[in-house]
Amino acid sequence: MQISGLFFICFVCILWPSLVSGQGHVLDKPVTELCLNCICEAISGCNATAICINPEKGACGIFRITWAYWVDAGKLTINGELPESEHAFIHCANDPHCAANTVQNYMKQFNQDCNDDGEMDCLDYARIHKLGAYSCKGDLPYNYQSTFEECIENYEDQGFE
Ligand SMILES: *[C@@H]1O[C@H](CO)[C@@H](O)[C@H](O)[C@H]1NC(C)=O
């Protein structure tokens, strides 16, 4: 009895992120937490203030997600909102959890070796996130790249991979 109760609690806590992410499906997550943290550091300083810095294309929340990116990532929503509803995009992009799942979905779909080093890893995800899936081999803006690299080095110094 006690064991099955414990099992149930863990089952709920494991499922919870996919339950709250709403309409879309998050089947697996290619991007590590560490990598997500460094992408968010580089792109917004992980500033969780709910804002969109570009009124036309969006660029909202800690990952500065654009509307097109959100669409390509499967239009995840929060609080059971319909993807078609007017504010579904902004609400998701400004919610750190929904935004992170959006990044995961996008990377799952557009996973590629942008820097031709024979691996698909965080360096590629950082490129895909900033430059888009179809131009990820291009040049990264200096500030983005240096903040990202500093963040990764920091983690490496602390013994994380
Ligand atoms: C976060 O962003 C908001 C809006 O741009 C800004 O007012 C605030 O100072 C920022 N916070 C930090 C800690 O940088």
Offer a concise description of the structure.
One of its GO terms (biological process) is killing of cells of another organism. The protein has 161 residues and is mainly α.
Structure commentary:
The protein is mainly α and 161 residues long. It has one domain (5-157): Lysozyme (Orthogonal Bundle). Helix content is 52%, strand content 5%. It contains 7 helices and 3 strands, in the order ααβββααααα. Strands 1-2-3 form a 3-stranded antiparallel sheet. Strand 1 and strand 2 form a beta hairpin. Residues 1-27 have low confidence and may be disordered. The site of 2-acetamido-2-deoxy-beta-D-glucopyranose has 4 residues, from loops.
How far apart, in Å, are the first and last alpha carbons? 39 Å
Overall pLDDT, averaged?
85
What number of domains?
A: 1
> Strand tally, please?
3
**Percentage of residues in strands:** under 5%
Helix content: 40-55%
Put simply, the count of helices is 7
Protein name: lysozyme
Signal peptide: 1-22
Disulfide bonds: 35-122, 40-46, 92-98
Catalytic activity: Hydrolysis of (1->4)-beta-linkages between N-acetylmuramic acid and N-acetyl-D-glucosamine residues in a peptidoglycan and between N-acetyl-D-glucosamine residues in chitodextrins
